[in-house]
Amino acid sequence: MRLKAFVAFAIASVCTLTLPAWGQTTKIGVITSLTGSLAAFGEAHKNGYAIALDEINAKGGVLGKKVELDFYDDQSKPDQAVQGVSKLIDQDQVPVLLGSYSSESTKAIVGSVTQRETPLIIPTATADNVMDSKSPWVFRVCAGATDYARATIAFLKANGAPKKMPLFMRTPTSASPI
Q: CA 7 to CA 23: how far, in whole Å?
């Protein structure tokens, strides 16, 4: 609940600073994986955004304007995510972006949004190196992988380790050492 409130506050703050005074709706760009190997997660993104959009618009929108989402399918590929930045910002003129689902695609778009001075709100990319650029245009609203790992270890130490443990695959951008 607090995360949802924070995301709504962040979007409202960004929109206050970046939106033109005209128009009855505010368009927000979303880059996520609707096809490819991460499509299930991208669909979850899309469904979650639809729920939030309904709630936000039912309460009058943001700054009195209804919110619309403009989706771009990155096909679960970082190079497609970069193309999504061009389409959404340069062609569709969105003032803020949400996305992408994966750390790889998100890391790929950080330079593009920074160059265009467009805010990027990262809801799910957890790899610690996603934030390495220290761009003032990039905001992550989830914890990093190391934070999740530390919290899990602290929980296990406090509550007793299980007799069985799942194994996870480590990739250069999806896990962090403790």
A: 23
Query: In terms of CATH, what superfamily is 2-144?
Result: Response regulator (3.40.50.2300)
CB neighbourhood size of 127 (10 A) = 21
* Residue 76, preceding peptide bond in cis (omega within 30° of 0): no
- The residue with tokens 């007799």 is 163
Length of the chain: 178
Specify whether the CB–CB gap between 28 and 69 falls below 8 A. Answer: yes
List alpha helices for the chain, DSSP H: 2-18, 39-58, 78-85, 103-115, 145-159
Closest among 33, 17, 34, 15 to 25, alpha carbons compared = 15
Predicted confidence (pLDDT) per residue in 41-76, tens digit: 999 989 999 999 999 999 999 888 899 999 999 999
State pTM to two decimals. Answer: 0.77
